[in-house]
Amino acid sequence: MAYLDHAATTPMLPQALDAYVRTAQSLGNASSLHGSGRTARRTVEEARERIAEALAAKPGEVIFTGSGTEADNLAVKGIHWSRRADGRNRVVSTAIEHHAVADAVAWLGDHEKADVTELPVDAIGRIDMDAVTALLAERAAEITVITCMWANNEVGTLQPVAEIAALAQAHGIPVHTDAIQAVGHVPVDFAASGAAALTLSGHKLGGPTGTGALLLRRDVTAVPLLHGGGQEREIRSGTLDVPGIAALAEAVVHAVRTRETESERLALLRDDLVARIRGAVPDAVYNGDPEHRLPGNAHLSFPGCEGDALLMLLDAAGVECATGSACSAGIAQPSHVLLAMGADPDDARSSLRFTLGWPTTKADVDALVAAIPEAVRRAKTAGLS
Amino acid sequence: MRVLAAMSGGVDSAVAAARAVEAGHDVTGVHLALSKNPQTYRTGARGCCTIEDSRDARRAADVIGIPFYVWDMAERFHEDVVEDFYSEYAAGRTPNPCLRCNEKIKFAAVLDRAMALGFDAVATGHYARKGEDGLLRRAVDPGKDQSYVLAVLTPAQLAHSMFPLGDTPKDQVRVEAETRGLAVARKPDSHDICFIADGDTAGFLKNRLGSATGDIVDRATGEVLGSHDGSHQFTVGQRHGLGLKRPAADGRPRYVLSITPVDNRVEVGPREALRVDRIRTGAPVWLAEERTGTFEAEIQLRAHGEVYPATVTAEDGGLTARLHRPAFGVAAGQALVVYDPDAAQGDAVLASGTIDASASSETESLEAAGV
């Protein structure tokens, strides 16, 4: 079986799994005052320091959460709530955010009467900086928070987060970035980015599912989503998941430490994958930014084919990939990212995402390249029904 | 064979898929999403295609051990089934959407796509048999037989269809589902029309077709007995829901005899006036070898309806049936299905056609009844 869906989830790294198992065997609530509690707390604080160091943040800026989605919601809603005031009620987002951000923003618009602005992207999925400049010139005083992902989860395009943060800083507007697809895959320096908040998720970089973190600058406040013990800076409540946090730190540290060689290896494999698919299927279209993109991401459209049909045929041939973000009812909708990039709905439905991860080898690419011509031939016959 | 099992989330299609696996086929489960905005939960026996149904289908596929996908057929379903439903009612006819769905979606769009993607057949949980001779025959369980709603298939479509439940009574299918550990074993059967979630067909039609006040007229006397707010809310043969204040002079119930959308007129009268013994259809679909001229057969006029012996004539791009025993309340738009009776192997479907007109030889000619 060739698994080429690492952006959906990637297996835990051996060292993260070891850390998880080891820590899960020891007793202790990190908030308890006795010896077991202190041991657990020490594990958490060491993890916090290691993550901070790996991403150029301060330990006090790391807030552990139960998922990337939670961290995104905490940043977008929490910062908006803490900063909204008379005449300041606008959330700025982009047209290509993951649902964890996009739906949180839409909810603020629908239920909290927030004004919402969505920044457009160009044909390769990159934020339109002119739109950012124009918006700030016109409405800076109205804006509570700007949220812009570091790297797009579907087409892999890297975003000019630091440029946006620099422009926003002049107006004192905090910028949040969903860096879930970026951490461990491209250089991420929280301090240098100028972002006020950054989301990461465990299971996209070799850590456990159900772990995430929000890096939140000390001078920025966020109103909590969850109320309770106030364990994390009074901003996030809930008993700390000590083994999850230990494993998350192990994964972040390893992914960041090996990032340079690993991303080079993945980019070579990815480029080989794309070249060979285009050789086998000449009308396939490579989407996204050809250069400034995630090293393990290949996103292609296959004109005349339905992505769903291709996925099924490849699945039957032992190759696993994605059509875009999965939908609860399993009904494929044309990707909002591709539509924002100007694709027509048929093209948007004809695409597949192949994402490579730490276990990916040339054999996986070979399996895909062997299976794709027949899958495309059949899917074309079936057409865009 | 590579078989695509259409799985609705109900017990029948789940057992059908399991049986296809057991028969040695390479089976893939597919749930058809027919609504763009599916309801999250189903209420009792009503409707289908909710997200919960999709989950039930997925869980059944897990237990059976087959791959599972959801196919989005919502657009096609809307165009070919829901829009047809509206336009038929608007024309004063009574459509059968399940039959239309089999004709246009399950054994057309889905089957075509399946064949293109490399499957050899589509298996469903319909109760019907396919004989050794390739004919479509009634199921063993007469109460569940669904050959009527499958009679619109062409021979080519039928050749690529499988109905693994045709030889089994429904209660045994439930027992089998239980034995196989399928959680849907006790799920209620779905009734009514799947795309009308609340079961209010009149309200569904009114939403789209609007309401306009028209007369309810006694056919015999021409007397206006009452009013209605849209002729599309009625079906020939309907007795309830007429809202007439005064009883008929003879105290007997009154029925809808005809619906004329052009002047929004609904005619009513006694049950005898619904009596017909001649029925004409549009162009037939022959599932067995095409016949010409006149022959004896049995006909059925609605799903799970009565069976009538009749003399059938095939001519002029249509079928005419002369019933040996009268039928009551035959609605245009329903299918007339012609069967060759066979007690041993199950009655075989010969042909089907959509009913255009019906008449009683005692009172009027078929020509006068108009098409």
UniProtKB/TrEMBL annotation, chain A:
InterPro entries reported for this sequence: Aminotrans_V_dom, Cysteine_dSase, PyrdxlP-dep_Trfase, PyrdxlP-dep_Trfase_major, PyrdxlP-dep_Trfase_small
Keywords: Iron, Iron-sulfur, Metal-binding, Pyridoxal phosphate, Transferase
Swiss-Prot/TrEMBL catalytic activity: (sulfur carrier)-H + L-cysteine = (sulfur carrier)-SH + L-alanine
Cofactor(s) named in the record: pyridoxal 5'-phosphate
UniProt cross-references to Gene3D superfamilies, sorted A to Z: 1.10.260.50, Aspartate Aminotransferase, domain 1, Type I PLP-dependent aspartate aminotransferase-like (Major domain)
Gene Ontology MF: a single term: cysteine desulfurase activity
Domain Aminotransferase class V residue range list: 3-368
Coiled coil stretches, renumbered: none
Annotated Pfam families: Aminotran_5 (PF00266)
Family from the record: Belongs to the class-V pyridoxal-phosphate-dependent aminotransferase family. NifS/IscS subfamily.
Protein name per Swiss-Prot or TrEMBL: Cysteine desulfurase
From TrEMBL, chain B:
Annotated ATP binding sites: 6-13, 32, 125
Example GO biological process: methylation
Keyword Nucleotide-binding attached: yes
GO molecular function, one term: methyltransferase activity
Keywords attached to this entry: ATP-binding, Cytoplasm, Disulfide bond, Methyltransferase, Nucleotide-binding, RNA-binding, Transferase, tRNA processing, tRNA-binding
Swiss-Prot/TrEMBL site (Interaction with tRNA) positions: 126, 334
Domain tRNA-specific 2-thiouridylase MnmA-like central positions: 204-269
Active site (record annotation): 101 (nucleophile), 194 (cysteine persulfide intermediate)
Top enzyme class: transferase
Interaction with tRNA: annotated segments: 144-146
InterPro entries according to UniProt: MnmA-like, MnmA-like_C, MnmA-like_central, MnmA-like_central_sf, Rossmann-like_a/b/a_fold
Functional description taken from the UniProt entry: Catalyzes the 2-thiolation of uridine at the wobble position (U34) of tRNA, leading to the formation of s(2)U34.
Protein name: tRNA-specific 2-thiouridylase MnmA
